[in-house]
Design goal:
With 231 residues, this protein is α/β, with parallel strands linked by helices. It has one domain: Undecaprenyl pyrophosphate synthetase. 44% of the residues lie in helices and 16% in strands. The protein contains 7 helices and 6 strands. A 6-stranded parallel beta sheet has the order 3-4-2-1-5-6, sandwiched between helices. Helix 3 runs parallel beside helix 4. The longest helix has 24 residues. The relative contact order is 0.18. The structure holds farnesyl diphosphate. Farnesyl diphosphate binds next to helix 1, helix 2, strand 2 and helix 3.
């Protein structure tokens, strides 16, 4: 099973408590850890985290730096443990505009975990669903230009294979916290048949129990993929 997480509400949580926004992201990172640790028990094989969107660049510079430092700290600190636990880490998004430090972190974690297959952790940084589709279209156009693909052979599989998620299964369930009920440019192509679960809790308040509640809700739904329900 593949679950996508839109971890919203860190800033609101921090402001409500009278803290700096970055404290919300720090608490949010601890929740991420709890959720990752509960995935094998939950039967979740792939988890995609929406960590930083292409739209997030419009935030205050200090907050952006704080977030990048947090990714760096968390991923570096847990890399050895994640690798020895069979986790394959993949980054979704464009490396353009990211600091060298983050690009090195991404390359290192991707390479070192490339042969793992027990659990797939996708981290979307500088990611936007539309930007991902634009990049995929460019790759396809290049292949057409170079005579590697015939225009008439372009189909859904071609596009899927050119996305950052390439060979991975589409998300079965997308969870968003903090009461917002929209996708905000997350996995635009891949979410065509995903189920959604919206929690009113801000992300730092989310936890393993809430995660299991979301999974239970998902399991109780009949998934028809456009066919007659139940078939
Ligand atoms: C949205 O809340 C959250 C983010 C933009 C950042 C998510 C990052 C983490 C949870 C840090 C940990 C991640 C990893 C991969 C270690 P918001 O700031 O938009 O909240 P608001 O809507 O209340 O302002």
């Amino acid at each position: 099973m593949h679950v996508g997480l839109i971890m919203d509400g860190n800033g609101r949580w921090a402001t409500r408590k009278g803290f700096d926004r970055i404290e919300g992201h720090k608490s949010g990172a601890k929740v991420v850890e709890e959720i990752i640790r509960s995935c094998s028990q939950a039967g979740v094989k792939t988890l995609t985290l929406y960590a930083f969107s292409t739209e997030n660049w419009s935030r205050d510079k200090g907050e952006i730096k704080g977030l990048m430092d947090l990714f760096n700290y968390y991923i570096s600190r847990h890399l050895t443990e994640m690798i020895s636990n069979g986790i394959r880490i993949k980054f979704l998004g464009s490396k353009d505009g990211l600091q060298d430090k983050i690009v090195n972190l991404i390359n290192n974690a991707t390479e070192k975990s490339a042969y793992n297959d027990k659990f797939f952790l996708n981290i979307a940084i500088n990611y936007g669903g539309r930007d991902e589709i634009v990049r995929a279209v460019r790759k396809i156009a290049k292949n057409v230009k170079n005579g590697l693909i015939d225009i008439d052979d372009i189909d859904e599989k071609t596009i899927t294979s050119m996305l950052d998620t390439s060979s991975q299964k589409d998300p079965d369930l997308i969870i968003r916290t903090a009461g917002e009920q929209r996708l905000s440019n997350f996995l635009s192509w891949q979410s065509a048949y995903s189920e959604f679960y919206f929690s009113g809790l801000e992300w730092p308040e989310f936890n393993k129990t809430e995660f299991f509640k979301a999974l239970e809700s998902y399991k109780s739904r009949v998934r028809s993929f456009g066919a007659v329900a139940g078939e």
